[in-house]
Amino acid sequence: MEERAEKFLIVGAGPCGLGVAKALKEAGIAYDQAEADTDVGGNWYHGVYETAHIISSRKTTEYADFPMPADYPDFPSRKQMSDYYKLYADTFGLRENIEFETKVVMCRPRAADDRWEVEFAGGAQRLYKGVIVCNGHHWDRRFPEYEGAFTGEWLHSKDYRNPDQIAGKRVLVIGGGNSACDVVSEAARVGAEAHLSLRRGYWFLPKTLFGRPSAESWAMHLPVFLQRMILKTMLRVVVGRYEDYGLPHPDHKLFEHHPTVSSEILHYLKHGRIKPHRDIRRFDGKTVEFVDGERIEVDAIVCATGFFVSFPFLPENLVPVENGNIAKVYAGCVLADYKNIYVFGTQQVRYGVGPLITPAARLLAKIIKLQDAMELPIGLVMKESGARLPDTHLVDPIASLRRMRLADRTLPLLLRREKKLRRKFAAARPPAPSPALRPDPEMRVY
């Protein structure tokens, strides 16, 4: 096994992985970076359909320390986003540490010294000081399950690439999120029919309000309850009632789930190009029956039903995941049971993630350095200091920035707390057992 025991390994070179790499480089923390694809950019390089544009805005998606080119529109295209991440990597010299077409298949903790054994798809094995997981959360497809069998084309929105796949076809899109709205709007333009199946009511927000991207509204800087009041008033004036578009009324408060940002969906609904339906009851060949008894025939179904947060290269349940999308980590990145593993970027920001990546990555670099001064896992110290595990995968970006600024100021206090905890645990530790009863030295005990 090749030893790189003074380095960290960053898994992934998407937007989050690149932001972390820059922060580690600035902090003087040695690292390698493994990327399974042939270039940087993650989902924007390999996983987004050709006609996609961002749903937030340029200003709320760009890195805080690297503005997008001035000639980019408010809502850049897939190609522009991909070019932007390549430019970021080139500008800050990040490519020199990236190994492309290098897939990580397993990372195991070595209890003896808190280092991590890493295995790659080609069979190579290395020993690292630690691992920083930046593998993204838009790749492990969620598929719905229904009675019966559908005999037409069945694909996930992740596998949708261009309008040729649905041109001239009767298309049903399942879901009410941003990808669902993009694909069903595409079907309204090029398909023979466009249908949308919704299991529940969603909040559909227009991409712009009063000539500006919705994500840049001044209201977004207010407490959430005020944001709800203001945006609901704006929606009633600008959009009207969702029921007037044939849509069900939202079954949750605004921002309790990720809102859908799309101006096209409402446009095509009013033009009759998109037909809304209830949830699906069953399939019979190409016939789809909905829960209200309505039946239609379609040629293709696109499941825009989201993704799981998962880590196939980590031991099962090492990072607990609740409801398929909530990674149970402290401070958004650390575990209580292990040192030198950091999980970065699993949460879903309400709108553009860019402004959060840079400060979060810099805070991570400080956490890594602070962990070096501790014997206990910093996640355990946070837990014993009252930190809570997340109960949602959604993040309010403004509130998150406030929390990061507070954490940046209070982080050094954890070192004092860690020393007290070590004394507490030492006092509570039972006498050493006889050699015959002594536990396996590979077992972790704190």
Report what the structure shows.
This protein is α/β, with parallel strands linked by helices. The chain has two domains: 2-139 and 308-428, 3-Layer(bba) Sandwich (FAD/NAD(P)-binding domain); 144-305, FAD/NAD(P)-binding domain (3-Layer(bba) Sandwich), CATH 3.50.50.60. Helices cover 27% and strands 21% of the residues. It is built from ten helices and 25 strands. The chain has helices at 15-27, 43-46, 78-91, 178-190, 224-238, 264-270, 354-372, 378-384, 397-410, 413-428; strands spanning 2-11, 31-34, 98-99, 104-110, 115-120, 125-133, 140-141, 153-156, 170-174, 193-197, 204-205, 208-209, 212-213, 260-261, 274-277, 280-284, 287-290, 295-297, 300-303, 307-308, 321-322, 326-327, 341-343, 348-349, 394-395. The strands form eight sheets. Strands 1, 2, 3, 4, 5, 6 and 23 form a seven-stranded mixed sheet that branches. Strands 8-19-9-10-15 form a five-stranded parallel sheet. Strands 16-17-18 form a three-stranded antiparallel sheet, with no helix packed on it. The longest helix has 19 residues, at 354-372. The chain is globular and about 70 Å long. The chain starts with a strand and ends in an 18-residue tail after the last helix. Mean pLDDT is 92; it is low at 436-446.
Provide a compact summary of the structure.
It is built from ten helices and 25 strands.
